[in-house]
Specification:
- This is ParA family protein.
- Residues 52-230 form the AAA domain.
- Residues 1-24 are annotated as: Disordered.
- Helices cover 41% and strands 14% of the residues.
- By secondary structure, the protein is α/β, with parallel strands linked by helices.
- The chain has an eight-stranded mixed sheet with strand order 3-4-2-5-1-6-7-8, with helices on both faces.
- Helix 11 (244-257) links the parallel strand 7 (230-239) and strand 8.
- It is globular.
- It starts with 25 loop residues before the first helix and ends with a helix.
Length: 315
């Protein structure tokens, strides 16, 4: 059952319209949140000064990596930013969540990597938003790492495919690359192709297990393959405010990584878990839920940080 905050007194509304004869209820609050999400009143999010290509990586499974990828992308798209999700995970979970065709034989990221089709040819529009596109992953991708080993420039196949010319053709502001839960050749390709890494970390006991290895691999890619790569964003996921452990993990991550960690924390939510089963992001499945609003807030942080970062670098 979705968690709903129930304060003793009605919270102040940020809407200019009020209905004094109708009392506050949790359902009314959720409906108002959904309306604000589906019809943004505060305008669009700021576009980045230059296109941002972000790899979403964590070799530990079950941390909300794919969930965060598709929901952040959807939140940016809803607020006016053209966004592309590249599903680089053979499981194809991002493709499922965005309800794009990823049956065997469909033009996919596999054909892009081996040079049979271009990224623009494989990109599919989604029903989530006219601004949201996805390059799907099919079962053919499962054997791609073995095939890539013998190919020339095996670490930079994706970088060659995600060229500025191709992305200009699609016209996107953001690219999110969803990696498999491993540190193999596909993940290396994603890091070589991107300028930024977004790391989702769950607020649980084993949250930091293996993180050191991930950071070491990122450093190796920086030194030898992509000097522009940096860890720009850390997102805390699956936060359960009922436990002290969640607060301890949150504080430890913030103390260690500082401002790299987004202020927004994604709560543990049944709605977020249910949405992919319906081929939807949580923003489409239940736009008034806490999970949906948290991803919107996180996306706003990412967009605002990007605008400030580019503004600072241009001066």
């Amino acid at each position: 059952m979705e968690e709903v905050s129930r304060p003793v007194n009605p919270p102040p509304s940020d809407s200019t319209e009020t209905t004094p004869d109708v009392g506050w209820t949790p359902i009314a609050e959720e409906a108002a949140r959904a309306a604000r999400l589906l019809h943004p009143e505060e305008g669009m999010l700021p576009r980045p000064g230059r296109r941002r290509v972000m790899t979403v990586a964590n070799q530990k499974g079950g941390v909300g990596k794919t969930t965060s990828t598709v929901n952040l992308a959807a939140a940016l798209a809803v607020h006016g930013l053209k966004t592309l999700v590249v599903d680089l995970d053979p499981q194809g979970n991002a493709s499922t969540a965005l309800d794009v065709d990823h049956r065997s034989g469909t033009p996919s990221i596999y054909e892009v990597l081996i040079g049979e089709v271009t990224l623009a040819d494989a990109a599919q529009p989604t029903e989530q938003s006219p601004n949201l596109f996805c390059v799907p992953a099919t079962i053919d991708l499962a054997g791609a790492e073995i095939e890539l080993v013998s190919m020339a420039s095996r670490e930079s196949r994706l970088k060659e495919a995600i060229s500025s010319e191709i992305l200009n053709e699609i016209g996107v502001d953001y690219v999110f690359i969803d990696c498999p839960p491993s540190l193999g050749l596909l993940t290396v390709n994603a890091m070589v192709a991107a300028q930024e890494v977004l790391i989702p970390i769950q607020c649980e006991y084993y949250a930091l297990e293996g993180l050191g290895q991930l950071l070491s691999n990122i450093e190796l890619v920086q030194q030898h393959l992509n000097r522009e790569l940096r860890v720009s964003t850390i997102l805390l996921t699956m936060y359960d405010g009922r436990t002290k452990l969640a607060d301890q993990v949150t504080n430890e991550v913030r103390n260690h990584f500082g401002d790299t960690v987004l202020k927004t924390v994604i709560p543990r939510s049944v709605k977020v878990s249910e949405a992919p089963g319906y081929g939807q992001t949580v923003l489409a499945y239940d736009p008034g839920s806490r999970g949906a609003m948290s991803y919107v807030d996180a996306a706003k942080e990412i967009a605002e940080r990007g605008a400030q970062m580019e503004k600072g670098s241009s001066t």
